[in-house]
Amino acid sequence: MSESNNQNPNGFNGEVKPINIVDELKTSYLDYAMSVIMSRALPDARDGFKPVHRRVLYAMHEGGNTPDKPFVKSAEIVGRVMGLYHPHGDSAIYGTLVRMAQDFSLRYPLVQGQGNFGGRGDEAPAAMRYTEARMSPIALELLKDIKKETVDFIPNYSNKTTEPLVLPTRFPNLLVNGSSGIAVGMATNIPPHNLNEVLNGCIAYVDNPEITIDQLMEYIPAPDFPTGGIILGRGGIREAYHTGKGKLYLRSVYKVTDESRVKKINIVEIPYQVSYNTVIERINELIKNDEIQGITEVLNLSKNDINIELRVHKDYDPHVIMNQLFAKTSLQSSVSFNMLALNKGKPQTLNLKQFISIFIEFRREVITRRCVYELKVARARAHTLEALAIALDNIDEIIHLIRSSARRQDAAQALLSKGWNCKILSAMLENLEQSPVIARPSTLEEEYGINSTDGLYYLSPAQADDILSMQLSRLTGLEQDVISNEYRDKVAEIARLIAILNDPAKLTEVLRQELIESRDANRRKDNNYDARLSAVSDEPISLDDESFVNKEDVVITYSRDSYIKTQALNEYRSQSRGGRGRQAAQIKNDDEIDQLVIGKTTDTLLCFTSLGRVFQIKVYKLPRATQASRGRPINNFLNLQDDERITNLIILDEEAHDDIDSKYLFFATEQGKVKKTKLSLFSKIRTNGLKAITLANTEVLGDEEVDVADNDNSVDTGIDGLDGVDGEEEVNTLVPDRLAQVVVITDGSPVYLISRLGRVSAFNSDCVRAQSRTSRGVRGMRLASEQDRVIAAIVPKNNDPLLTVTEKGLGKRTRLEEIPLRANRGSKGVGIHKLSERAGSALVGATQINEVDQLAIITDGGKLVRINANEIRMTGRVSSGVKLVNLVKGELVASIEAIVDGQSIEEEDRLAAKAHAEAELDTNLVDNSTAGHTAQEVSPISAQDYADTEE
Question: 3-state class of 605 per DSSP?
């Protein structure tokens, strides 16, 4: 083979040069990294574009795809960009074109699209052969003056044409439309902002370059996303504007519709760059996994605008559900700031003021270069007008000269070889307000123009060429006034441009005026183009469900069949004593109302069970129901065992949580046991409950009570010296114990235990030592008989009287001073309410009540009556009381609850309610549990048991 055949066509001569692979890898990787940083991933701080975006817009501008022209196929645009400026894949170019046309991707789209350009549900755009595009009006602001040498151009990849290194944008596009990208070892994420706000911030910076970032934030308070939403986290925004890095949170916007049978949540705005299909899938997943309750149906009603409709069960609060969705879905998303951009060719993290400063300096440069270009063009035109004035002054001679010349070069030489009469030009110069010297091109040699010696005008080669380029018909049709006026205007323009270039203050004023024009020119006819889409809120970023709850007083009812619900307290107006009440629950089967408590929606409800466990639930999480609803089973909210049921409900208000270490929970069981335990031990109750008390069966031996517990023979019998009732026969009976009531107390609080058969035992709580959660407690009250049991434990907050109510609806108030307070626990107490066939054979409840308070009474038939406390007579201990509620045959009172002052209605409301006191509404409420034994189950108490002496 010949030597020439060994020569490689590319010049390789067969020589191999050894290199160090580590050095080569370092060099190659750095070259690659710089290429990605400079030419692909990071935007220029001046115009806010990466090369591909800049090339697409420039190609469209050069191709005439402007807003005033028809749409063209996207494939044509992509082909032009790829062929002239961007020799990469067509999919990347088309993806860039598509994104610039999406109004949900860019705050101000730079491309107008026709056809399917994708959607917010991650729908892919149609192929480029189907879609059409052209520049949007605002995109023209990015390329304005690009033909006036305002920016540098560089050769394209093939050296066949040139492309701009940066676009002479009239607004800070990087802040307005934002940018994101991942380079090598660095990334950028700049959220979009409102054009009007950003330009106002720029104007403020121009007026005061020493403006602080906090002052700039008065004009630019936060980003403004094309998809709207509510912006949270001003602290993160401020940090980002000061340091270039930070975080905000973007929350969805929703509307709630409360209809008679169903509640609807319509989500109408979702966070930036979040797909509504992804949101819907996630919500359905949460429902399927039972991670969220209350949503019965999810509908996607989105068309042109976002509309995700959630159907909500009537017992649930839509705002609470949305708060849970904010925490578990992308309906609330974080947006990170990493404001990294190329400044003078180097990556730099910029704060808000630096962004604006770089843009303003760039605009100064653009305006300066434009003025230089316009000055050059104006002087050239003035120079041509001088030549036209000479031609007009010597028209016949010049026409004769041109006609007699064989070639253009000969005619040009003849024009340059002599001086010409310049009377018309001299007259034009005399009428100028400025010196004609400023109109002379800076590169024109001294020999051309009016000669000061002979007064003749000597044409320059450029002027001779201008005269020869004119047609004879135009040359002979020249008008002196037209030339004179245009010349005067050009000289004035030259003077203005020179003044701008020589005076920085005037240049600044031009810059400021153009910012105002850009701000105003981009407003649509409806004047909403610059309206902010994303609202800024001072709400906390992370809200608990309680933050969305309307704080109001509610009635909580619980039935023997374990149904629970809440109703607004103001649904029940007060009635006169003896009224029938308003139907609060439609009792079904043999169910009965068991308990009634009143609290606020923000309170905590403690639920004590038959197994001695305690659960907690916020009141607002309980089902809110109408009077026609039963509510929902308590098992839907608490993890109860099969044989476990709720026996006691108590409310812990906000005051109970104050100074929690000095407070106790005081337990009283039906068999007279009492216990106190630190309230702080119940501050964290698990979802599967917490052991609160050990409930042991009590063996009643005649008058003595003995706990029956495994491996525990130690019995606290209470107070020494307490003997049984003489003559009673000892009967061995095993009685299951359960909680009667739980209250919050402090050290030294008096406690009043009230029994079902109308007795009260009062002692100081210091008689009961603090015990652990699992202890059984000690004897607090010795019961009078086997049928008796403790029904209430009252801790007076003041000297207000005690109110007691019998099963047949008779009630009375008793002064505290009539009840002896013993130094020790364990007595049988004294009588507090006389029972009889008329009054009933048992008490159903007791509470402390004030004159201005009200009392809520609910019957086992589901009726609720609300009466004023001052209508209940104050009597001695041994009396039966007065009728509080009018019961139908077979109906008994189930529970009572005091309504403290502040919840009572005004007098006019009471009068209105009284007029309708006899009306019963056909509605359903919660079915509550055991209303106690009926009158037939209890033996009447003897008069002897109501002796005024203590037992």
Answer: strand
Domain end (from 511, 545, 565): 511
CA atoms of 430 and 129, how far apart (whole Å): 63
- CA quadruple 694, 699, 704, 705: dihedral, nearest 10: 10
- Rounded CA separation 860/882 (Å): 20
Query: Does 381 lie in the same domain as 304?
Result: no
Q: Helices 276-288 and 318-328 sit at what angle, rounded to 10 degrees?
A: 110
Rg over alpha carbons for the chain, rounded to the nearest Å, is 46
CB atoms within 10 A of CB 313: 15
Query: CA dist 358 to 45, 355, 514, Å?
Result: 7, 5, 17
Residue 37, token pair as written in the block: 């940083």
Residue 233 lies in a domain: no
C-beta separation of 56 from 113 below 8 A: no
How many separate helices (H) and strands (E) can be counted in the chain? 21, 48
Tokens 């033909």, residue?
Answer: 147
Would you place residue 229 in the very low, low, confident or very high pLDDT band (cuts 50, 70, 90)? very high
Asked which of 330, 351, 379 is the last residue of a domain, the reply is 330
User: Does residue 506 fall inside a structural domain?
Assistant: yes
Whether residues 415 and 504 fall in one domain: yes
* Dihedral over Cα of 37, 42, 46, 51: its sign: positive
**In the block, residue with structure tokens 């005024």:** 948
* Residue 71, Ramachandran bin (φ over 0: left; ψ between -120 and 50: alpha; else beta): beta
Cβ–Cβ < 8 Å for 331, 283: no
Residue 39 pLDDT exceeds 60: yes
Q: Do 569 and 899 meet the contact criterion of CB atoms below 8 Å apart? A: yes
Statement: residue 705 has pLDDT above 60: no
Closest CA to 198 of 215, 214, 216, 185: 216
Torsion sign (Cα): 427, 430, 436, 437: positive
CA atoms 321, 322, 323, 325: torsion sign? positive
CATH number at residue 898: 2.120.10.90
Please write the tens of the pLDDT for every residue from 784-816.
888 899 999 999 988 999 999 999 999 999 999
> Quick one: 765 and 838 in the same domain?
yes
**Do residues 456 and 313 share a domain?**
no
Cα 223 to Cα 201: distance, rounded to the nearest angstrom: 13
Which residue from 641, 605, 569 is spatially nearest to 902, judged by alpha carbons? 569
Q: How far is CA 656 from CA 196, 348, 744, 842, in A?
A: 51, 55, 7, 31
User: Residue 633's beta-bridge partner residues?
Assistant: 563
More confident residue, 591 or 663: 663
| Position 517 in a domain | no
Residues 898 and 757 in one domain: yes
Per-residue pLDDT at 627:
67
CB 711 within 8 A of CB 638: no
Q: What's the total number of domains in the chain?
A: 4
501 is written with which tokens? 């270039």
- Give yes or no: residues 825 and 913 share one domain: yes
What is the C-alpha to C-alpha distance for residues 338 and 246, in angstroms, rounded to an integer? 7
> Residue 383's closest CA among 482, 490, 498?
490
Kindly report the pTM of this predicted structure.
0.71
In a domain, 793, yes or no: yes
**CATH number where 130 lies:** 3.90.199.10
Domain that holds residue 405: 363-511
How far does the chain reach from its first CA to its final CA, in angstroms? 133
DSSP symbol at 895 = E
> Catalytic residue positions?
130
pLDDT above 70: percentage of residues in the chain: 84
